[in-house]
Amino acid sequence: MESAVADTEGATREPVLSLKGVSKGFGAVRALTDINLDIYPGEVVAIVGDNGAGKSTLVKILAGVHPQDSGTIMFDGQVVSIPTPTASRALGIATVFQDLALCDNLDVVSNLFLGREIRNGLSLDEEEMEQRAWSLLRQLSAKIPSVRIAVASLSGGQRQTVAIARSLIGEPSVVILDEPTAALGVAQTAEVLNLVERLRERGLGVLLISHNMADVQAVADRVVVLRLGRNNGDFHVADVSYEEIISAITGATDNVVTRRASAHAGSASAAAAAADASGTGTVESGITEDFRTHETPAPGTEENPQS
Ligand SMILES: Nc1ncnc2c1ncn2[C@@H]1O[C@H](COP(=O)(O)OP(=O)(O)OP(=O)(O)O)[C@@H](O)[C@H]1O
């Protein structure tokens, strides 16, 4: 699936990461079948799909947790294998899992440099690490009150920020974020989405796993839909509607979201017609944004045989 594309200046770009026909099974369960995916430098690609669609399995293959059964992974144009998490990091893929893997009792500097401490002779160079920590956090426009406080005392958004900043210490080319806003409130979510934009500005390829369509539409350039372990859509976010993404996720063109959307469109156009007649304003759609709240195939049915 790898293909060069022309950027706005006309220069061709190659994907930094490219998957071709990647499949993975667990016993009788086909978690992924023939997955194709390209990520370009400076691009945020959201992976969406219902529960069990295969998102975590895809992340784990790229993070070196599970090897794929078949298919090819290319990184910077070279075919690679990713047998271990160390191999994934060494290639330049940084994965921030939902648990963040921070040490709560250690301060921000210690967490950022954990396992990659800077030394001055035999002792740790605390001053250098502290300066680099501030510099990195400033580049990310991160709002961290002090780099010398224990991570336990930070908010959820700040913890996510520290985990993402730590992933950058190894200077990766691709960052994978697994549901980075799942446990966050509105303001903290906005902070993390700002951070994702900073990653894109640094020229990184970002793979964002998300269940939240507002996040996807706010920050992603492209959205790739997985359904029952297969590719089921690859859209430019600017060109696709919320209802089209939901249809690709659920595999149905008729579901509660699309029905509500057309009902809203119907009442909106009726209201607009009435407003036109009376000279007053229009009506906006009020569809919910987390697609998991909508109809999904029941486990064990033909629609969802894997559950
Ligand atoms: N280690 C495993 N052993 C057996 N089956 C697995 C394993 N990991 C995943 N699966 C199965 O693979 C399929 C894809 O699961 P996966 O966790 O990748 O989906 P997901 O899209 O991340 O779902 P969710 O949104 O619920 O996290 C599911 O049917 C799941 O039960």
Automatic annotation (TrEMBL):
Residue ranges of domain ABC transporter in the record: 17-253
Nucleotide-binding listed as a keyword: yes
Stored SMART domains: AAA (SM00382)
Cleavable signal peptide: none
Low complexity: compositionally biased ranges: 269-278
Single annotated GO MF: ATP binding
Protein name stated in the entry: Sugar ABC transporter ATP-binding protein
Keywords (A to Z) from UniProt: ATP-binding, Nucleotide-binding
Top-level taxonomy: Bacteria, Bacillati, Actinomycetota, Actinomycetes, Micrococcales
Stored CDD domains: ABC_Carb_Monos_I
Annotated stretches, region: Disordered: 269-307
